[in-house]
UniProtKB/TrEMBL annotation:
The lineage of its organism: Eukaryota, Cryptophyceae, Pyrenomonadales, Geminigeraceae, Guillardia. Gene3D superfamilies: Galactose-binding domain-like (2.60.120.260). This is F5/8 type C domain-containing protein. InterPro entries: FA58C, Galactose-bd-like_sf. PANTHER family: BTB DOMAIN-CONTAINING PROTEIN-RELATED, OS05G0345500 PROTEIN. It comes from Guillardia theta (strain CCMP2712). PROSITE patterns: FA58C_3.
């Protein structure tokens, strides 16, 4: 997994997130993963589940694979993570992620 902590006193009510693949090829693209939120970094809530997801496509703007996903929650979180739950496009369990962007309402 890979996680993001927004810092003390910062919470985000997420509306969308974008993931970027770390390579210019489709090798090792994420296929099975969860987007999760937490307020203590220990207990996690699944915000979106992906099973055999093929939505990452090559971005003409960045020249890398990327995808954006909506999230339906009204709850703010200070921690977010991508948890790989199965094999990637190459059939192994290496988590290759070049970037994550979080969108929503920041609560201070």
């Amino acid at each position: 997994w890979i996680s993001v902590f927004l810092g003390e006193g910062r919470h985000l009510v997420p509306s969308h997130y974008t993931l970027r693949h770390g390579f210019t090829t489709s090798a090792m693209l994420l296929r099975n993963f969860e987007f999760q939120g937490s307020n203590d970094g220990v207990t996690w809530q699944v915000l979106r589940r992906h099973r055999n997801d093929h939505s990452m496509v090559i971005s003409s703007h960045h020249g890398r694979y990327a995808a954006s996903y909506p999230v339906s929650t009204a709850q703010p979180f200070s921690h977010f993570r991508i948890l790989q739950t199965g094999a990637n496009a190459s059939g192994n369990h290496r988590l290759c992620l070049g970037g994550i962007e979080l969108y929503g309402v920041l609560v201070l």
